[in-house]
Amino acid sequence: MQAHNGSCDIAPSLSYLTCLMELLLDWLELDNLEDYLNYLDYLMWVFTPLIIVFILPFIIVIFLYLSILFLHVYKRKNELKEAYSNSIWDGARKTLATLWDGHATIWHGYEIYGLEKVPESGPALIVYYHGALPIDYYYFVAKVILLKGRTCHSVGDHFLFKIPGFKPLLEVFSVIHGPQEECVKALKNGHLLAISPGGVREALFSDESYIIMWGNRTGFAQVAIDAQVSIIPMFTQNVREGFRSLGFLRILRWLYERYKIPLVPVYGGFPVKFRTYLGDPIPYDPNTTADELAEKTKDALQSLIDRHQRIPGNIFRALLERFQWRAKEE
């Protein structure tokens, strides 16, 4: 078999695979195997970083499923105790909180400022900026469990409840998808409740300029008014540098706005510095409307962004901040 004129003629001297290799080398204009290997090395050098940044977000997903696996094992081990205790999941929550807190410390040098503004008991509504992946919020929940001994209830998007296997994790950590009546009920029962008004839209289509994308949403403000609780704004520095999305692609934005399909790839997982800041509580005022309270909350969150985030965000700078010390007064 011989390679000539772009084809392989049958001959016993060479295998068909060798012939195809020769054709490939000719097409790439590579003279020998060494040139071929150098070409492969070049491709690996170019594409490996790109592959890595798209793989790292899946590590977080794997970590979530490992957490779910732990819950299943924990439940089986303690199923007899369940008949005698209403707080059987406390140990599981604290164990997972410890694991997530360890991940936060090692991978992002995580720090939190203003946690004392979260009440030791009683309700409060926490409103936060939504990163491409809300891993900073997971870290916050872990800190509240470990340092406050409280479980922060959360409002999650409907698609979370459709992810296979996620139900135990959502139930143990008190994640609800609304509606407003359920949110008010949770607050009136004395729980902490956290919500990101921007939700999936803000997660996928905001960028390193940290634009707050709430639109005309005021439901969270009405919840605070109905439950007569204060609102605590929360923002995590460099959350957009840890994970980013390809939300700038117009076709992906069109698919989401038209069909609510969140098919926007997320990449990153960079070990940048994370600092979570909680602002001063916005107290309940019966004379404030939902529109006014929503605007006041947005201004408070924007103030945290303006104070603690350099715009536009920069991944390399955020990595360097791992080695910078910042006074606790901030």
UniProtKB/TrEMBL annotation:
<dbReference type="GO" id="GO:0016020">
    <property type="term" value="C:membrane"/>
</dbReference>
<dbReference type="GO" id="GO:0016746">
    <property type="term" value="F:acyltransferase activity"/>
</dbReference>
<keyword id="KW-1133">Transmembrane helix</keyword>
<dbReference type="InterPro" id="IPR002123">
    <property type="entry name" value="Plipid/glycerol_acylTrfase"/>
</dbReference>
<feature type="domain" description="Phospholipid/glycerol acyltransferase">
    <location>
        <begin position="111"/>
        <end position="234"/>
    </location>
</feature>
<keyword id="KW-0812">Transmembrane</keyword>
<protein>
    <recommendedName>
        <fullName>Phospholipid/glycerol acyltransferase domain-containing protein</fullName>
    </recommendedName>
</protein>
<dbReference type="Pfam" id="PF01553">
    <property type="entry name" value="Acyltransferase"/>
</dbReference>
<feature type="transmembrane region" description="Helical">
    <location>
        <begin position="42"/>
        <end position="71"/>
    </location>
</feature>
<keyword id="KW-0472">Membrane</keyword>
